[in-house]
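Pipeline run #58 for the internal structure catalog. This entry was flagged by the ingest filter as a single-chain record with no existing model, so it goes straight to prediction. Upstream metadata was stripped on purpose; only the residue string is passed forward. Reviewer on rotation: M.T. Logging verbosity set to normal.
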Amino acid sequence: MFKIPSQLTEDIIFIIKNIPRGKVLTYGRVAKLAGHPKAARQVSWTLHSSSGKYDLPWHRVINSKGEISLKFEKDRQYQKALLEKEGIEFLSEYEIDLDRYIWKISSMDLI
């Protein structure tokens, strides 16, 4: 059975699809831009369940500390490699400078 995405899920997908190469957003920032600032877990779930289906640049979403937060080492290494390929430099093994690489956009820019 095919489930129709909720408006929140559609908004999350739209935002993530538009993150430019070489920029990142945090889970919480995506949620806030989608109009639901407390929905960071929904962002994570959407990435987990829909990245392939919607061809999302999932690797451009990181945690609020500026770190890759995937569970498995090989997955963290893969995300890091994808980000480095886009020109993102790391401060430490899995941490980037959020001030430098965060996509500076407001919800008004998405209208």
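catalog note: The first strand starts at residue 25 and ends at 26.
catalog note: The domain at 7-101 is CATH 1.10.10.10 (Arc Repressor Mutant, subunit A).
status: ready for reviewer M.T.
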